[in-house]
Amino acid sequence: MRHLFSFDFIFGVDSSQQQIFDAVGAPVVDAVFQGYNATVFAYGQTGSGKTFTMMGPPGLVAGFCDDPQMKGIIPRLVEAVFRFVGQADRNIEFGIKVAFVEIYLERVRDLLDPEKVNLEIHEDRQGSRGVGRWLCLSVPRGRLCAD
Ligand SMILES: Nc1ncnc2c1ncn2[C@@H]1O[C@H](COP(=O)(O)OP(=O)(O)O)[C@@H](O)[C@H]1O
Ligand SMILES: [Mg+2]
């Protein structure tokens, strides 16, 4: 089977994390709040810059970058989502679920639960696929739960 992919954009070596977020991340947040499912998927050989682009350089806490210039797509997406929620009508309640998994050598690892190193991808009765566990945030009441 032949797949066709359209080419949209290539970033230069001097591109900033902000420019990449503006082109790749911000439209995803807009799409999500219009009801679309959206994914930012980084693919490439080891050392090509996936983690740097998605997370940013390592911060004081391993894997967490809060440098305003250097932070990557994921912290910027999270901020954009919560900014949108914070500015929305107070009568709207949002449910936010977070899963954080890594696929490496065809194995799925739950990064929120380091003991789960080889997770199955399961499908629920509605046919949507899931993996690992979810962290659930109910905003604005600020309830945090994990199931
Ligand atoms: N845009 C960039 N600017 C500066 N350093 C970068 C950039 N992209 C990657 N690096 C550095 O290159 C190295 C490999 O990048 P990394 O994100 O770990 O690759 P991958 O996750 O694809 O294996 C890391 O030391 C990272 O800090
Ligand atoms: Mg990496």
Report on this structure.
With about 150 residues, the chain is an alpha+beta fold. It has two domains: about 10-90, no CATH class; about 90-145, no CATH class. About 25% of the residues lie in helices and about 20% in strands. The chain is built from three helices and seven strands; from the N terminus they run αααβββββββ. A hairpin with a 5-residue loop joins β4 and β5. α1 (about 15-35) packs across α3 (about 75-85). Magnesium ion binds next to α2.
Keywords:
147 residues; 25% helix; alpha+beta; disordered C terminus; binds magnesium ion; two-stranded antiparallel sheet; 3-stranded antiparallel β-sheet; 3 helices; 7 strands; 2 domains; binds adenosine-5'-diphosphate; single chain; 18% strand
